[in-house]
Amino acid sequence: MDQEKTARHMMKGVASSHDGMSPVPRKKFRKPNEEKIDITEIVEGVQSGSRLFLGKAITLLESSNPSHKKEGQDLLNRLLPETGKSIRIGITGVPGAGKSTFIETFGELLTSLGHQVAVLAIDPSSSLTGGSILGDKTRMELLARNPNAFIRPSPTAGTLGGVHKKTRETMLLCEAAGYDIILVETVGVGQSETLVRGMVDIFLLLVLTGAGDELQGMKKGILELADALVVHKADGANTKLAKKTVAEYKGMLHFLQPATAGWKTEALAASSIEKTGIREAWELVRQFEKTVKESGTWEKRRQSQTKDWFRSMIADELHSRFFEDPAKRDGVKTLEQQVLEGKLTVSQAISVLFE
């Protein structure tokens, strides 16, 4: 049978690609060269007050890239002479106390008085995904647009107490950039207060009205950390109750040991909506600064905080280097299993690990 006349006949194909175009060799993926970091440029940018370069400097310090660690510390070391000239204010309070609203109103007042304000807002990270909303720039819309303010939201990244481990270094960078007031907003989860107390000059605790029940539930230790209590949202129908709450807190503070030697912890009412009590809060901060500097406690506290920071960094570095050792990581897994199986106590496993 003539095969050219059957359905099974196949004509010779055309030597080309499937779409008739000439074949193109497949491109190999190449990792782009990492952008070289110019430390001198960043240093000069930070010193000039550039928010862009300040953001870059903070990102470099927060980076987990090993190569960035050395560069970040070199950057910080070169900026150290320009640091230490600000008032560091810690602000905390239970969720719903209006911390972000208070900080925005407070910050707007300070910038109107000629100050440069930096806000370090700590956002809680998810324990499941490690992610954070980082929505403080949204909540502080006016202050975020203020040319004399800088807002840096940072995730807690699993840090105990809700304070990012680089918050102290970020404060120094902000000071080098010319910000004379640093506001540190905490998550307000209970343990963050102690950590923030160890890095600021004055500590403000925002509370709400209804102190009768709050005083029972408020931990004495948290109250003893505060240099001032601000009864927030003291506006409208809540104004009268806020004044009553202030009086109740003053009565309680009378029996507590002050957080700072030579200073009596104060309580006042404030409203961010009506902008009442905000200027009084700032005047209280200035009075605190004057009193504590004259007594010498200001400088002693700064030195003590630096020493504590140094020691905590030793512990962090030991932990980091320990788990960077592959043999140690494998040993931990083995010993963990032996502890779970009841073959070793926890103390025995630790002794074996360090031997």
Structure description:
This protein is an alpha/beta fold and 355 residues long. The chain is built from 15 helices and seven strands. The protein has helices at residues 39-47, 51-62, 66-79, 99-112, 136-139, 141-145, 167-176, 192-197, 211-217, 220-225, 239-253, 278-295, 297-324, 326-340, 346-354, and strands at residues 87-93, 117-123, 149-155, 181-185, 202-207, 228-231, 266-269. Strands 3-2-4-1-5-6-7 form a seven-stranded parallel β-sheet, sandwiched between helices. The relative contact order is 0.09.
What is the residue-mean pLDDT, rounded to a whole number?
A: 82
How many strand units? 7
Briefly note the structural class of the backbone.
alpha/beta
Estimated radius of gyration = 29 Å
For the biggest sheet, the summary is: 7 strands, parallel
Strand content: 5-15%
Poorly predicted sequence stretches spanning 5 or more consecutive residues: 125-135, 158-163
One letter per element, helices H and strands E, the order comes to HHHEHEHHEHEHEHHEHEHHHH
Cα end-to-end separation = 88 Å
Helix proportion: 40-55%
